[in-house]
Design brief:
By secondary structure, the protein is mainly α. It has a domain of 59 residues. It is 62% helix and 9% strand. The chain is built from ten helices and three strands, in the order E-E-E-H-H-H-H-H-H-H-H-H-H. The chain has a three-stranded antiparallel β-sheet with strand order 1-2-3. Strand 2 and strand 3 form a beta hairpin. It starts with a strand and ends with a helix.
Length: 216
């Protein structure tokens, strides 16, 4: 069999390979160049199959790297996302192992990243973050040890402080219901929610009194 032409796909770094005048397969441009494919080159069916498999392997790995470019992923997340893209299970296993060897996948490091990110950007309870880690495939021991140092009291206050501007002027019952519901959905327990509500209400009241005081 002979490669009769190579045609670059529009808007993609891929080429269509034609063998004996018929479309045979599409490959990444870099792979085609690496293998030195050109018109007039003789190829066997086994060689074409090897090219298909290598292209699939490379495509899966590049898809994984794109996912990691947005944020770190747990191994479970990576497996799910590759599976949704139609990557065969055996190739998912191979890709995940390759990422592990390159230190691009590390569930311990991911757990630390996720915990710190949540606590900084979207504070929630230690228990809720631990459950999120478990859902993402982090083992129970790693999840528990990663969130161990979190402070629910401080996190609840920081979460509440971001919403206080929207609660100004409300009576206490409405304030308590709205902010209390928000904190409960963030996983905080009754006592932490109660103390946070009291603290925030007192600070809001003190701030209102300070603004209302006559200027000397």
């Amino acid at each position: 069999m002979i490669i009769t032409s190579l045609e670059r796909q529009r808007r993609r770094r891929r080429v269509n390979v034609y063998v004996d005048g018929r479309f045979a397969l599409a490959l990444a441009l870099g792979l085609a160049q690496e293998k030195g494919l050109h018109s007039g080159m003789t190829v066997s069916e086994a060689e074409l199959q090897a090219l298909r498999e290598e292209d699939e392997r490379q495509s899966a790995y590049e898809a994984a790297l794109r996912l990691l470019s947005y944020r770190p992923r747990s191994e479970k997340e990576m497996r799910m996302r590759l599976g949704r893209r139609g990557v065969p299970p055996a190739l998912v296993d191979e890709t995940v192992e390759r990422l592990r060897r390159a230190h691009y996948l590390d569930d311990g490091a991911f757990a630390q990243f996720w915990t710190e990110s949540r606590d900084r950007v979207s504070p929630r309870s230690r228990g809720l973050i631990r459950r999120e880690l478990l859902f993402k495939g982090i083992d129970a021991e790693t999840a528990a040890s990663t969130v161990e140092g979190l402070d629910d009291e401080g996190a609840a206050y920081r979460a509440a402080a971001k919403r206080l501007h929207a609660l100004e002027g409300l009576d206490y019952d409405v304030f308590r219901r709205r902010l209390g519901g928000f904190l409960t959905r963030r996983g905080f327990g009754y006592d932490v929610v109660r103390r946070t509500l009291e603290r925030c209400w007192s600070e809001m009241a003190a701030g209102s009194q300070s603004e209302a005081a006559p200027q000397k």
